[in-house]
Amino acid sequence: MENGVRPFGTEAFQVRGAASPHSFRLENETVPPEQLIQALTLVQRASKDLWPGFIPATIPTLVFDGDDTWLGGTTPATPGWEASLSGWRWRGRHPALVANTAVTLPDGSTAAGILLRSLGTVSAERLASLVIHEAFHVWQAAHPSPAWEANELDALTYPAGDAEVLHARAEETACLGAALNKPDWQGDAAKALAWRAVRHGLLSARQREYEQRAETLEGLAQFVECQFLKELPLLDPLAAVGLGIRPWAYFSGAASAFLLSRGGESWQAEVMSGTPLDSILAGQIGTSDRMPEITPALAEAAAHAAQAHTLRLEHLRQQFDALPGKRLRLSGSKLRVVGFDPLNIHALPDGQLLHTRYVAVEVGDGRLEVLTAQALADGADLLNPTALTVADMTEPSVSGGRWQIRTVTLRADLPAANISVTLNGWEASLD
After folding, report:
1. Which of 107, 180, 195, 429 has its CB 3.0 to 4.6 Å from that of 77, i.e. a possible disulfide?
2. Are 16 and 96 part of one and the same domain?
3. Distance between CA atoms of 214 and 208, rounded to whole angstroms?
């Protein structure tokens, strides 16, 4: 036990007096699925050497199994939970859980959150690795460092459709993969750094910093996860050209961490002080002034990926425009985005931002939350859009002066007096 947090695993689900945690169930007892118990048992037994000071079993966990949400490692401070000898259950998806992420609970505590469409889609070992990945993010939040400070606004300007940037990334990915699979790895790692220098020459200072911070934020969580699974990150240069900067940082950051770990553990303290992974690696092995040879197949793949990126953005906008049903347009000078999924935001050529999975906004005493659905934001400011449009709306209920919708994909609670009916839905003007 650390800082009063009770581990969530075999012990958390053990029935008193039973010969083993799985050998006896009380009649009508509320219990988590067996697969979840197995996964959290693996978390309980995970090595304490994945990262200095990080002990996965001490991190509270919030898991939605497709039907219900299970909380462990802490006692809920708000009503709505069902208690049993085996843990805590919330019927359906808990409102705080919107993605695989570090989740802030209503009492201010933080848990490793896992959101699954179905528990049957993932093995117990894989589920345990996801828990450990998100638990590391909880640990990162509890241990502030400039290493974790990635500004998501900078990701929106990243040149995801630039063929030269994508080509250099593909070449770097190929070199990193070669280095990971060789005992004599320094030469390939130096080539990877040379290709990185080419790409960084095409980026702004803020874009370079975002990439490096994303590698320490997400790449190190991936590194910890891969260590638990006893496997190396998958590095496919052809697939790399089609990834957004944040998804790619998972793999490039993890790969750099594995290479750095071959030289001892001092690099981890450097990371905590805010030094980027690529800078530490360059300090260990040096850099090459010689430009590596171009791989024609990767250059061609990058050109195709750049063109596909532009077409994909056009298609996403067309898909949004074609969504059926009524629409709600919410506007206001004080509109604030209070939650979003950075992996599912698309900066459209016209300057609008398309949220394709999750976004939550507040303005005055109104709130709108979209989950597994789409919303189009006007204005390039991620956190302060001028308007937000949601398609495929259902009819609201109006009671006590509130305009409300509560479905699986949409939650709205707005002042009814500020909402007017339009030809294709509703307009909400709030300040």
Report:
1. 107
2. yes
3. 10
